[in-house]
Each structure stands twice: as structure tokens, then as C-alpha cells.
Amino acid sequence: MAKFAQNADIDSSPAVENALADIDRRLAIENAPAWRPEPGDRFSGTVVKIHIFEHEEYGKSPVITYEVDDGVFLKVYAIHQTLATRYYELKPSIGDVNTVAYFGAIASNSRKDPKTGEPIEYHKYSVLGGTEQEEEAPW
User: Fold this and answer.
1) For the chain, what is the mean pLDDT?
2) How many of the other CB atoms lie within 10 Å of CB of 25?
3) How far is Cα 68 from Cα 46, in angstroms, rounded to an integer?
4) What's the CA gap between 34 and 67, in Å, rounded?
5) Nearest to 131 by CA among 22, 58, 33, 50
6) In the chain, what are the domains?
7) pLDDT score recorded for residue 1
8) Which pLDDT score is estimated for 111?
């Protein structure tokens, strides 16, 4: 017999074992750690959950949860506008394989701070994969 919650004996049939494995997987997805990248970090993974998170400071943003290895999960909170925009363009779906990369804070070539005149920094990301369609070549 398999053990569950406070060492109670339960049926260890394949159906019960599968149900417990499913519960463990769902808990792992729900409690996946947030990806906190440093410049140059990247990963590839399979999309397992997509939802919208509302943060007091940042407002609403997409959260994409990935399985990056067998049973290892990461959540990507798209709080930076460039990353959120990339996800809205890509429109990932459950089961898609994406590669996500963070390049760091980059000085804009075109946007300047109106008070200082200095270039505004933005966080540069790349997300590859999903259902994205390339435009036709112009020739």
C-alpha cells in the first residue's frame, strides 16, 4: 500500500498511483518558482499553463508556466512591457515549445527621458516558438 497524508494506508492500484502523480504534477505547476533572469540567461520549455496575474504595482500581466525538464517547472511573469508584447504577438498555447532569453537593460536608440534627455532603458527579451507566422518575403 502507498502512503499518503499522515501515513494513512491507501490503495496503491495503478489508477490511484496515476491520480496521485497527477495531483503532484498540478501542485508542482501551481507552485513553480518565478524565473528571475540575469542578462544572458535563457531556457527552453513546454508551455503547461497560461493565466493573467494582477499585481498591485505592475497591473495585469501574462504568466506563462513552462516545464523545462521532466517535472521541473518555471513561471515567467511578463511584467516588462517588451516581454508582454512579445507574448501577445506570439500567442503561445499549451504544448508549445518556447525558448525565452533575457538580454538585460538596453538603452533605447529612439526614446529619451524628457527631463534628462538621456536614453530610456528597457528590458530586452526574445521569445521563440509558438504559433508565430513569419511575413511572406517581399520578392
Assistant:
1) 86
2) 14
3) 7
4) 12
5) 50
6) 33-129 (2.40.50)
7) 41
8) 87
Interval 81-122: pLDDT, tens: 999 999 999 999 999 999 999 999 999 888 898 999 889 899
Give me the pLDDT at residue 11, please: 62
Which cell numbers hold the place of 135? 511575413
d(CA 26, CA 54): 21
Question: Which of 64, 66, 118 is CA-nearest to residue 86?
Answer: 64
Amino acid symbol at 20: L
The residue ranges of DSSP E strands in 2-139, in sequence order, are: 2-4, 8-10, 42-55, 59-69, 72-77, 97-112, 119-129
Task: Judge whether 90 and 125 are in contact, CB under 8 Å.
Answer: no
Work out the pLDDT band at 58, boundaries 50, 70, 90. confident
- At 103, the amino acid letter reads F
Strand 72-77 to 59-69 pairing = antiparallel
